[in-house]
Specification:
Layout: H1 2-14, E1 22-28, E2 32-39, H2 46-49, H3 69-80, E3 84-89, E4 94-101
Bound molecules: adenosine-5'-triphosphate (ATP) and magnesium ion.
Adenosine-5'-triphosphate binds near residues 52, 60 and 66.
């Protein structure tokens, strides 16, 4: 969550957005917890869109971004929680969708 919010904050500043919204929703059903994080920070170029979860992919200056934030977020969601993280474009920015299964399934060799 910190990675996502920090990215929105960086994009608000880079894109000089003054009316800044980050909308976080949570919900769950019998099996899954769901979190969405939506911003209006200007969105992501088509050419970059498919790369953002790759390690070391960044559009930021090397002093301000290593490109590991979303890669780590994906590892945490997938390997830490056995869940998923996805992104979609919205009207003025992006929305991240996190889904985490509620049932704990122990790893079996
Ligand atoms: N909410 C967002 N709005 C616009 N662009 C985004 C957003 N989130 C991520 N990005 C883009 O995805 C790239 C990768 O994000 P990621 O968090 O992995 O790395 P970073 O923020 O560049 O560096 P780090 O998080 O390691 O400091 C960013 O450089 C930025 O171009
Ligand atoms: Mg980041």
């Amino acid at each position: 969550m910190i990675n996502l919010i920090q990215n929105s904050k960086d994009a608000f500043i880079y894109n000089k957005i003054t009316k800044r919204d980050i909308i976080i929703t949570t919900s769950k059903n019998d099996t899954m917890a769901k979190i969405t994080v939506e911003d209006n920070a200007g969105g992501i170029n088509d050419k970059d869109f498919d790369k953002i979860f790759e390690p070391y992919f960044t559009t930021k200056h090397s002093s301000s971004g290593t490109g590991l934030g979303l890669f780590m977020s994906k590892i945490i969601c997938e390997q830490g929680f056995n869940g998923t993280i996805n992104i979609q474009k919205n009207k003025n920015g992006v929305t991240f969708f996190i889904q985490i299964p509620l049932e704990i399934v122990d790893d079996v060799e």
